[in-house]
Design a protein that fits this description.
single chain; 348 residues; TIM Barrel; eight-stranded parallel barrel; globular
Length: 348
Amino acid sequence: MALSPGARVRLAALCAVTALLTVLAQPQASADEPPARTVSGWLPYWDQEGGYADALRHASQLHTVSPFWYQAMAADRIDGHPGAGDTRIIDGLHQAGIKVVPTVMETMGPGVLAEILTDPHSRTTHVETLLTVVRARGYDGIDIDYESIAPTGEDGYLGVRAAYAAFARELCGRLHALGKQCVLTVSPQTADTGRIWDYAALGKAADRVRIMGYDLHWSGGAAGPLASPQWYDDILRHATALIPADRLEMGLPAYGWDWVPGGRTRHVTWKEAEALRLAKGIAYQLDPASQTPHFTYEEDDSVRDVWYQDSLGVAADLPVLRRHGIRNTTLWALGFEDPAVWPVLGRV
């Protein structure tokens, strides 16, 4: 039976009210709720299968994986490490919904990279060489981790700093024209470190600037924590004044160092550090100041001092990241980490 015009109006009104009540009944996100954290990670070529399996286990949390695959040798030469460009790994990560942005690092002799960057012709040649790498495997972009320019002397550092910024603008512009991402990895910048990087210029050029938030104490110095909340606060107060927070990615350590006075410092992953601690029967302890785990043990009549990072240490650092609006993190490196760090990073 056909409804009267009045009945049709009342029915339409009833449907509208029902729809509104249904919407209101749904859980609503708070306008003040921060966006979810993103996690990226470097994949070490020396443990490629372990890192790859780790990435697939945590695919739901991973934004980008950067296989540590390439090394710049000259303006027109980039070599691959063992396993570089493995299409099985690239395809597997893509199928898991993870972007693949390989890292290019370099260990050129003193001044060599600076010469490439400060010469416009050599710089463009190098950009073209990098683009060839990106096109060769259908990568989503590239991550540049060039560190040999960091100790540039007082006389030359301003010129090298400007040249690296020019290189970043040229490379990132060309990548963006191809629809690819440009990621730049830099050392932390504080009052007395990291001066070689023009943070403001790099932040304008790149999609993400990765700050290596580790090695507060490193293999070449005295024993101590690799990171601390206080150090992160210092780094991020400076960085966020120059680079938008959503373009910053804070690098978190998943490893440590095993020092001995006057002897060789050993690199240890979280897994290796914990296995050593348990084998020595040493109780777990956190350093009160840095909130990072550490322990000492005896070997060959010497006392060795181990500092490393785990999920509790990361949990102590995250409030600092939140306070500075940093939601993007990256791990050095996949397969090194405390498995408990993943649920910690999953918290908003």
